Amino acid sequence: MPTRDPKVLVSEVSVTFESHGRSVVALDRISLQAQVGEFLCIVGPSGSGKSTLLRVLAGLVRQSAGEVRIQADHPGTPLTAMVFQEHALLPWRTVRDNVTFGLENRGVGRAERDARAREMLAMVGLARFAQHYPHQLSGGMKQRVGIARALANDPEVLLMDEPLAALDAQTRTIMQEELLRIWATLGKTVVYVTHSLEEALLLGDRVVLLTARPGRVSEIYPIDLGRPRGLEVRASPAYGVLLEKIWARLREEVVRAIADDRGADPEEIGA
Amino acid sequence: MSVVVPAAMLVLWELCSRLAIISPRYFPPPTTVGWVLADRVAAGDLGAELVVTLTRLVFAFALAAVPAIPLGLLMGIARPVRHVVEPYLAFIFPVPKITLLPFLLIILGLGEPAFVLTGASSAFFQIVISTLAGVQTMDPRLLDVGRNYGAHGLRLFGKVILPAALPAIFTGLRLGLGLALVTLVAVEFIAAKSGLGHLVYRHWQMLSTPEMYAAFALIGAVGLVLTRGLRALQARVLTWQDDSGG
Amino acid sequence: MKALGRWLTEHGMTVGSPIALLLAWEWASATGLLRAVFFPRPSTILAHLRDLALDGTLWGHTATTLARIGWSFTLAAVLGVAIGLAMGLWRRLREGLDPVFAVIYPIPSVLFLPLVSFIVPAGEVALVVTSAVTSFFLIAFTTTHGVRQIDRLVVEAAVHYGARGWRLFATVLLPGALPFIFTGLRLGLGFSLIVVVAVEIVSASRGLGALLWLSWQILKVEDMYATFFVIALLGALLSYGLAALRDRLLPWVPDVGDR
Question: Which residue from A83, B88, B93, C140 puts its CA 20 to 30 A from A255's CA?
Fold first, then answer.
């Protein structure tokens, strides 16, 4: 077991929103950790606050209680860089200028920015598209630009908010392979939010399962499926067992979330 | 905020006018304008002018909408019609419709028909263009759905094309009404002897500024009520449309 | 070959339709079917147009009108974009000014002539300021909308990647609003023409609007038509010219035709 401090430490974090005059508890006393170089996946039903948790880590949302600590091993680099679900690229900038956006804002010089952009675009396989505009790219390509942008920033921790959710199944599978490859090369600490349990098992070292709103940590599962991992792991029995086990718990939470939405009794929703 | 700021402005105006920081001759205090407004409305003559303007507006709008909508629809579904009519639209659209007034005055003489037609021309082009856009930008898949489920020809038109174009048509009507009002008031200012626009002119010439501002206020109010009212009506009638539509 | 034939037919109709109309008009007017007093022959109108151009009257009036459009549009654009941006960025300001704008906007610009003449001595300045009013509101409205329609997620991402304050404005908010600002400016320019001409009709002695009104008052119908044509030409140039420019300046906005 690792004895050093965790890279990411979330301690009793709660987030409460005011909405239409009522208080909504999005996250309730969340505690979790991520070690250096770990790929941590967070799954949960809709409304469990997964994205909110990520935004707290990114500093975009202020928690109402609790503490977040990210270990800064490399001074001068940002703590986090997030890959957003709907790519969120700036439509009026070329691919290259989108990738270097974070560097620009930190005052990095032109030469270094260009070099970094070339490197990252090559890593995601978009070297030829540096001068294109986002609207000229497909969904998968735009998402790769988003990843390149995050990596170019060289963050301590990489945050990913359902980055592949908006893609079609085929592109998504290819992108999952890409992610595994990139992560193996760079060895970053990653916190990855997804609603797909299959994806979480494929990518993650550990999977955190959140409950329906208010989001609490239901359980944290270690994923012992070996590294390096490829798509073929989906055929292994260990994968199947894990999938069954975790889905059983996740399913309960999903049903609860649907019932909540409809104001109905969970029992009525095909439980 | 939306109440505080205008209220504060009025108060400021009141003070500056009473204290003669700005000339009370040219900028009478809002309270004076208010009294005059109430007075004239009670006496009925402001009301009469308002009715005159509104009547012209109704006629202008009807004259514009009745031919414009069918024309726009026709242009949308029949390409030859569109190709024939398009050059005229493109030519006239950027022209100030007020410039049509002198021509109409010659042909129809100085009177209501010329005024109303000028106002109608503003609305007409807007409605045609909006209606055409409504047909052209409808989701083409809806046509496929219609045909696949047995709607052809007239039925396809009535059950699919027309409803799909309705939001754009409605927006066109709303914009057209606003344009007709603006043009009509301008026409009244320039050439008529009645109506709110003319009132502003008359009181300007006589320097009876409280009456002038009262007429101003009434015009602004009419414009506001019409726009907001139509927008609310649009939301009511087209309940399936989400907020993004114009 | 069939496609070419179709293209020719369609464009043939578009070009042919007005030509056919002009020819019909010429014939109808010449034969007296249309009263020449109301509808003079296009050939006569053309002759008058040529005369006006040759003796310099036309250029003089056109130049005056163009100058006024230039000044009033600049005034409206600078103020409109500035205040539109401010309203887009600060909710309080927007809420405060919205009702004021909503009441003033439906009033035709011409009617502001009295007001403006109280503040500024009657003359060119009064004319220019009056003409700027409606354009100002139009440009402010579209600018505000341009700022507000920027995808929240894009702004969030930009903030996350370190863009704050001035940088956020310059690299995100302004470019994001630009397509709308441009549309507003284009519409505003078209409007400037309309209002300048209207104001000229009311109170000027020079300019295309004044020329039109003057020609009416002395019943020189051919000159009326000629002036109208020039105004229409100007309107088309201003409206459609700017549209072409947009593709140059804003390469990231996908053409509607692309879809």
Answer: A83
Q: List the beta bridge partners of residue A9.
A: A33, A69
| C13/B80 touch (CB, cutoff 8 Å), yes or no | yes
Number of domains, chain B = 1
Q: What share of chain B is helix, strand, coil (3-state, %, to 5)?
A: 80, 0, 20
For position A68, what pLDDT does the model report?
92
The answer on pLDDT for C257 being more than 60 is no
C171 near A CB under 8 A: yes
Q: Would residue B151 count as lying in a domain?
A: yes
pTM for this structure? Answer: 0.78
Contact between C106 and B222 using a beta-carbon 8 Å cutoff: yes
Q: Is residue B7 part of a domain?
A: no
Query: Which two three-digit tokens encode residue A270?
Result: 């095909």
Quick one: DSSP state of residue C169?
A: I
CA–CA separation, B236 vs C135, rounded Å? 31
Whether B172 maps to a domain, the answer reads: yes
Helix (H) or strand (E) holding B210, with range, is helix B209-237
Number of Cα atoms under 13 Å in the Cβ half of residue A174: 11
Residues of C in contact with B216 (CB under 8 A): 107, 111
Residues of chain A scoring pLDDT < 70: 1-4, 263-271
Q: What's the 3-state SS for C55-98?
A: CCHHHHHHHHHHHHHHHHHHHHHHHHHHHHHHHHHCHHHHHHHH
Domain range for B64 is 29-237
Query: CA-based angle A31:A37:A41, to the nearest 5?
Result: 50
Helix (H, G, I), strand (E, B) or coil at A107: coil
- Judged by a CB distance cut-off of 8 A, whether residue C149 touches chain A is no
Q: Is the ipTM of this complex over 0.90?
A: no
pLDDT the model gives residue C258: 31
**Within a domain: B242:** no
Count CA atoms within 13 Å of residue A210 on its CB side.
31
Q: Which domains does chain C have, with CATH numbers?
A: 39-251 (1.10.3720.10)
